[in-house]
UniProtKB/TrEMBL annotation:
<dbReference type="InterPro" id="IPR032466">
    <property type="entry name" value="Metal_Hydrolase"/>
</dbReference>
<dbReference type="InterPro" id="IPR024403">
    <property type="entry name" value="DHOase_cat"/>
</dbReference>
<feature type="active site">
    <location>
        <position position="304"/>
    </location>
</feature>
<dbReference type="InterPro" id="IPR011059">
    <property type="entry name" value="Metal-dep_hydrolase_composite"/>
</dbReference>
<dbReference type="GO" id="GO:0006145">
    <property type="term" value="P:purine nucleobase catabolic process"/>
</dbReference>
<keyword id="KW-0378">Hydrolase</keyword>
<feature type="binding site">
    <location>
        <position position="178"/>
    </location>
    <ligand>
        <name>Zn(2+) 2</name>
    </ligand>
</feature>
<dbReference type="Pfam" id="PF07969">
    <property type="entry name" value="Amidohydro_3"/>
</dbReference>
<comment type="pathway">
    <text>Pyrimidine metabolism; UMP biosynthesis via de novo pathway; (S)-dihydroorotate from bicarbonate: step 3/3.</text>
</comment>
<dbReference type="GO" id="GO:0044205">
    <property type="term" value="P:'de novo' UMP biosynthetic process"/>
</dbReference>
<protein>
    <recommendedName>
        <fullName>Dihydroorotase</fullName>
        <ecNumber>3.5.2.3</ecNumber>
    </recommendedName>
</protein>
<dbReference type="GO" id="GO:0005737">
    <property type="term" value="C:cytoplasm"/>
</dbReference>
<feature type="domain" description="Amidohydrolase 3">
    <location>
        <begin position="329"/>
        <end position="420"/>
    </location>
</feature>
<dbReference type="InterPro" id="IPR050138">
    <property type="entry name" value="DHOase/Allantoinase_Hydrolase"/>
</dbReference>
<dbReference type="GO" id="GO:0004151">
    <property type="term" value="F:dihydroorotase activity"/>
</dbReference>
<dbReference type="Pfam" id="PF12890">
    <property type="entry name" value="DHOase"/>
</dbReference>
<dbReference type="GO" id="GO:0004038">
    <property type="term" value="F:allantoinase activity"/>
</dbReference>
């Protein structure tokens, strides 16, 4: 297949320009301004749209096994393809928990059979996600686990975290941690501050994040283990990560697209689809996260895709579950930063493809000869109004319902095969 008349953007090298891409046997065979193919090749005219590596989402909650009514690997794959995500990392918060090699193997086989995108499971860091006893990192890694995390839970026991980092270091395994101290969160349900007070809701202080993050960084310095803070959300956390990187520690971090595109004021009149963990912060913190992304302190952008059904979201704000779906809106929401002139397109794509690939040790995230043909074509200017009823996710709890967005995926290719195509027939 030959893609022509495209705006090629390679976030790995920073190169950008007009040209085409030739795909053969699931790989990028050739690319550039004058690429050609044999007569039998199928030709796709991109019409000047952007052609880039497929997105890699490092934080996706999928209901299967145990909560298939919220999301299945099949529906998550369809949602991912529509949003330009060609690889998703599934969290271990399932029933049963992904703390056994057999369950990891089941998810991988199930994903191969039903999902149209790549699914790489992250295994539990502690048994049962209880934070008390370290999981069998070596065996889980052999079974195919790409990283180790307790998902939406934090490991509060410093000794357990120290052992996990030490053990993971010997396997060169990646520890991904949700940095939020549950004791400091307490009964809090949104960002602590004036707006929470006006709404009469208990707040979550920034220190719930920074105290846990600071502890983890010190344990990384003690052990030398590879560490990734799943999502940071405030200016103080940026300073902590920046200082750790300046000391040469093996530390990376992510940010949720929600904390880049929204702030606490968007909660408005108790909109439960915007009840998230970490919570939406003050506008000053949102701007600090954008600046940190532009400066390279923040490595990756994640969707934090967390499907919730009506029973867990159609409740008073304080009682509703945390989480929002985000696979289909990840790129469109991130393009807001491009259209506002705050972050260039190549850097946005780098944070959603190249850097995740580097951190996870995956071959994707680049436009180069021999690279996997996991590709997306999208129109960064295409305007639309999001209708949650049209989402491919089984759950519809999107914070961007009825939002005006710009940028739509036209085509998604996974391993040389087109899995999503929005072109008119």
């Amino acid at each position: 297949m030959l893609f022509t008349n495209a705006r090629l953007v390679d976030p790995a090298s920073g190169r950008e320009g007009r040209g085409g891409v030739l795909v053969r046997d699931g790989l990028v065979a050739d690319l550039g301004p004058a690429v050609t193919a044999a007569a039998e090749a199928e030709v796709v005219d991109c019409g000047g749209q952007v052609l880039a590596p497929g997105l890699i989402d490092m934080r996706t909650f999928v209901g299967e096994p145990g909560a298939a009514h919220r999301e299945t690997l099949k529906s998550a794959g369809e949602a991912a393809a529509a949003g330009g995500v060609t690889t998703l990392v599934s969290m271990p918060d399932t029933n049963p928990v992904l703390d056994d090699p057999a369950i990891v193997d089941f998810v991988m086989r199930r994903a191969r059979d039903t999902s149209i995108v790549h699914v790489r499971p992250a295994a539990a860091l502690t048994k049962g996600l209880k934070g008390q006893e370290m999981a069998e990192i070596g065996l889980l890694r052999e079974a195919g686990a790409i990283a180790f995390t307790d998902g939406a839970r934090s490991v509060t026991n410093a000794q357990v975290m120290r052992r996990a980092l030490t053990y993971a270091r010997d396997f060169d395994a990646l520890i991904v941690h949700h940095v939020e101290d549950p004791d400091l969160v307490g009964a809090g349900v949104m960002n602590e501050g004036e707006f929470a007070t006006r709404l009469g809701l208990p707040g979550i202080p920034r220190e719930a994040e920074t105290v846990m993050l600071e502890r983890d960084i010190r344990l990384v310095r003690l052990t030398g283990g590879r560490y990734h803070a799943a999502m940071i959300s405030c200016a103080d956390s940026v300073e902590i990560v920046q200082a750790a990187k300046e000391r040469g520690l093996p530390v990376t971090c992510g940010v949720s697209i929600n904390n880049l595109a929204l702030n606490e004021n968007d909660i408005g009149d108790y909109r439960t689809f915007l009840k998230l963990s970490p919570p939406l912060r003050h506008e000053d913190d949102r701007q600090a996260m954008i600046a940190a992304l532009a400066a390279g302190v923040v490595d990756v952008i994640v969707s934090d895709h967390n499907p919730q059904d009506v029973e867990t979201k159609r409740l008073p704000f304080a009682e509703a579950a945390n989480g929002a779906v985000g696979l289909e809106t990840l790129l469109s929401a991130a393009l807001r930063l491009v259209h506002s002139g705050q972050v260039p397109l190549s850097l946005i794509l780098r944070a959603m493809s190249t850097r995740p690939a580097e951190i996870l040790g995956l071959p994707g995230g680049r436009l180069a000869r021999g690279a996997p043909a996991d590709l997306i074509v999208f129109d960064p200017e295409a305007p639309y109004v999001l209708d949650k009823r049209e989402l491919r996710s089984l759950s519809k709890n999107t914070p961007f319902d009825e939002a005006r967005l710009e940028g739509q995926v036209t085509m998604t290719m996974v391993a040389g095969r087109i899995v999503f195509d929005r072109r008119p027939t």
